[in-house]
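User: Hey, quick favor. My workstation is busy. Could you predict this chain's structure for me?
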Amino acid sequence: MKCPRCQHENPPAAKFCVECGAALARNCTRCGAAMPPAAKFCPECAHPAGTAPATPASYTPRHLAQRILDSRSALEGERKQVTVLFADLKGSLELIADRDPDEARKILDPVLERMMEAVHHYEGTVNEVRGDGIMALFGAPLAHEDHAVRGCYAALRMQQAVRRYTEEVRRAYGVEVQIRVGLNSGEVVVRAIGGDLRMDYAAVGQTTHLAARMEQLATPGTTRLTADTLALAEGYIEVKSIGPIPVKGLAQPVEAYELTGAGAARTRLQAARARGLTRFVGRDTEFDQIRRAVEETRGGRGQIVAVVGEPGVGKSRLYYEFIHSHHVQGWLVLEAGSVSYGKATPYLPLADLLRSYFKIDARDDIRGIRVKVTGGLLTLDEALKDTVPVALWLLDALPDDSPFFKLDPAERRRQTFATIKRILLRENQLHPLMLVFEDLHWIDNETQAFLDSLVESLPASRVLLAVNYRPEYRHGWANKTYYRQLRIDPLPPESAEDLLDALLGPDPSTESLKRQLIERTQGSPLFLEESVRTLVEIRALVGERGAYRLAQAPGALQVPATVQAIIAARIDRLDPEEKRVLQAAAVIGTHVPFALLRAIVDVGEEALRRCLAQLQTAEFVYEAQLFPDLEYAFKHALTHEVAYGSVLQDRRRALHGAIVEAIERLYADRLPEHVERLAHHAARGEDLPKAVRYLREAGSRAASRSANQEAVAYFEQALAFLEALPQTTDTLNEVLEIRIALGSPLVALKGPGSEEVQQTYMRAVEMADRLGAHARRFPALWGLWFVNYSRGRYPEALEAGERLLEAARSENDTGQLLEAHHSLWPTLIAMGRPSQAMPHLEQGIALYDRERHGNYAEIYAHDPGACCRWHRGMAHWLLGYPDRALSGTQDACRLAEELKHPQTMAIGIFFNVWVHCQRGERGLALRASNGLALLRGNMHSHRGSRPRIRCFVSCSLRERALGPSTNCGSD
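Assistant: No problem, here it is.
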């Protein structure tokens, strides 16, 4: 190996020159790959040899770097919705192969600089520079609600910049440069941010891989993106479909698109208009307030109207509807708006305002702009000739040799403010003027200063300044007598329902979905619309707008990616301490006791109250309860979900564990009241022993209230956790007890003859045999008897009942003896043997003690005392004693009413109606069946009784249809 310094020939394995000591092997400073000593560029990434590695801190603009560093502690360890951008210079190795490193850098570095400038212009983060390309993130570490739009705009900007640059290098070096760009949107986890801004992150799923794949597949000079990115930027960009593309590692091809340009929309409302606006509902009061301001302004008393509200409540839509109404006939309406990435660009809304005024569109070149501005101003008033340079400067159309550029910044600013005010105030002499400035929460400092100046000139003008903004924005106009603020909240339930009726249509399958959507979104129009769009995309809804039907149960409704990005961006703008408090509150739940929050956050009480006050001002939470204990609540379920989802698993688990300990400490004397909350947090905190304990208690509590669906969920979750614990005698006994407890609510949900019920009791019997727990075996055997009886297998049921009676007698347990007779009396009656059933019924009456056996309904699905009474009534009817039959069923109904057990009440009414029908008492049967129909409203979780309910409601309807001559008993 020849030394590059002294040309001495060295042994093949030498690392240093034996003659001069120079290093013979090098590594790339960018990717670490081994490089031959004489290499000018890295063979892996084309990075120039000997170039010091750049860090993100060296190329990130200072204002962005400072924002990231200031919030670093709050940003680390979070999930983020992002758009990933990859860009590289195609064919860079061939381009620089025979060139000197300095000359190669002169060609390559400007390309990288233009790529990075485009990313930073839209406040993205260049996370990695790869020799001839970059990787950038929009939405991380700083969240952006429009991260996909920013990523697409950055791609367009860098393509335009490189196309202009290639004209320079063609003249200077005789080469052409072209870049290719790939985009994809998804989720990443920000793990750590270094002092040099280098970010350690982990992609969730294929987020990064698909972006890189889009770049690799793009032809030079083009940008490709996935359907996920297009869904978030639809309306803001123009694309053409490439079709499905196979991607290594994915079973299904991925839809790809080529980005061809920016769309006409710049705001969310404009994008929605392209899709078609939904019905405008529920804003009559606010509409009338704007109308009054218009009347005041028309009379020469200028006004300010501020519409304030959270994202998505319809601030822009309210102005849109007003502007397109007859109320502004004869007015000149000029619209301008701030954009989320525009804070660092002075006067952006003012330039927007001038484009609206001079009717400048994207097709106008610089010459066309100059013609429209000059002609428009001189036509308005020749005295405005001196304002032309300022207007052209704001529109980037002023000639480079204009004296205006030689003014110092302060004088330029003064002339700019004076010019725009002169134009507007001169125009309002011809007709009233409505200036609409949208999204002031994103306004730049210079435009804000202009508005402050304009506000002082309004009182004697015919100018209505209409603005809107989110609650976190602040201004100094509130004390003006001509200022009115309209607070716009989410839609009330009736208006939200009207909106959903227009969106979904009248199909009955969507009724329950409408209620669910209104509850989740709290009536936010945007959130409602985006939720419906998401359901259409996943094909839970099929059809078309205004005529959808539910094709499949949507399950747990996901937060739409658009909504998640909006909320996440708002959360990221909080102070780091406020953000940590909000996330801790989200782990507690949608309702947050102050005492519990104080116990788990590492913040003093005064600082905590200050944080909560700010969170209230920003409308993330509100005071839900003052007495007996202070409690806060999240304003939106979606806000809670996004805040909770942003917390990484390790911190989340630790917080859940801390919450369990805090509840046990704070409410030590009232733990049963908090058992559901304890179960939830112990499970999420993965404290398995506590989770099993509290889940079992929560299941028993739910079963006692006949909340059978919840009871089954608690018990099954407890069983799942027990499987992860060591199989000791204690854990196996716990499994047995929970399986027995699971039986009764499962019977109510699935029906006693279901396969799930049979399997549950069979496993309980096996577990009891394994443990030798003969006493606990009895309820499981009784459950298997119930399965056979419910399936009509009466001989098997009779045999099982006799074994139960024998076992109960040997144990000398009156409770087991009662349930053994309980298994025999219905079996014998079903087999047509009422006389043989009667002794078991009399034993049941004698053995039943309400104090001792009143909770048996939770174990055996219904109360044995009521059961023996209604079956005795049936036996009396079959034996020819109709009065005794009626007395028995009515006695059963009275006991069931006292016990308040829905399953028992339903069956009791069933037997009472049956006896009335057999006696021919049609009116009494109808009244009793009406009671059954009323009870059905509370029977959603008592599936076993539904056939009986349907039977008797049907019987009642037939009675009414066919008249009193119908013999109900014969049915």
